[in-house]
Amino acid sequence: VFLTAFFASKVEHESKHCNGKGFQRPGSSAFDRVYTANQNCGHTYPTFLAMLWCAGLLCSPAPAAFAGLMYLFVRQKYFVGYLGERTQSTPGYLFGKRIILFLFLMSVAGILNYYLIFFFGSDFEMYIKTITNAISPLLLIP
């Protein structure tokens, strides 16, 4: 919520400093960058929430929460990088994709474990939690 409010305030700030009314401001590259970065962050937020919820519920809450916090920091880095040159936002974008992939794989592992329990009676929850706890610090590596 705070990150979204920050992004919205940046868009409002840039729109006040540009001439003209509405969102059609030709020649305002600063406003265009801020507005586009805000839209990009807003479009990925529902996917992030779904992946975070599924990974925390189906697999392990602690690594999912850690990945969620990392994702919020990465989106901040992406947004600030987008305000400069577009190439500055690339590391934040790629890092965010890696975190979403980690959350997705956690969700898939949780679903597979559920079906293994349901059909075969084998429970690999302890192994999955150990692996995700060991892998989650690797998300810090850029």
Any chance you could write out the topology, listing elements then pairs?
Elements: H1 2-16, H2 29-58, H3 61-83, H4 90-120, H5 125-135
Helix pairs in contact: 1-2, 2-3, 2-4, 3-4
Walk me through this protein's architecture:
With 142 residues, the chain is mainly alpha-helical. The chain is built from five helices and no strands. Helix 2 (29-58) runs parallel beside helix 4. The protein is elongated and about 65 Å long. It holds the Pfam family MAPEG.
Roughly what is the average pLDDT, rounded to an integer?
80
- Tell me the series of helices and strands, N- to C-terminal: HHHHH
The assembly state of the depicted protein chains is single chain
Low-confidence stretches: none
Main location: endoplasmic reticulum
Subunit structure: Homotrimer. Interacts with LTC4S and ALOX5.
Subcellular location: Endoplasmic reticulum membrane; Nucleus membrane
Keywords: Endoplasmic reticulum, Leukotriene biosynthesis, Membrane, Nucleus, Transmembrane, Transmembrane helix
